[in-house]
Q: What sequence folds into this?
């Protein structure tokens, strides 16, 4: 019984590291993988390097995406697309109604 109490802090530290560091990283990696798999033609995206564009084609052989930018067509790896920035870009803009006081 004494051996278990000696190892209890180590076990507790491992559980804390798992639930606060490892598990969220695995969840985020799964979300990014699903995001990359759900991309389709016509989606507006932003790469991790900040390049804005629209998907025009896929290259399954290279696991890449061909995007159209103001400068032309560029090929990027699917993993270089930023999930957060692309989702923000594609969110519908909430229009706020301004109330104008008529005086």
A:
């Amino acid at each position: 019984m004494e051996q278990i109490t000696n190892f209890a802090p180590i076990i507790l530290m491992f559980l804390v590291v798992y639930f606060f560091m490892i598990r969220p990283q695995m969840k985020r990696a799964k979300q990014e993988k699903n995001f990359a798999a759900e991309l389709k033609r016509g989606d507006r995206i932003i790469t991790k390097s900040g390049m804005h564009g629209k998907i025009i084609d896929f290259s399954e052989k290279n696991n890449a995406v061909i995007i159209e930018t103001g400068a032309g067509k560029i090929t990027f790896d699917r993993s270089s697309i930023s999930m957060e920035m692309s989702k923000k870009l594609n969110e519908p803009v909430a229009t706020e109604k301004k109330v104008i006081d008529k005086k």
In short: The longest helix spans residues 2-37. The chain has one domain: 2-90. The CA atoms of residues 45 and 89 lie 7 Å apart.
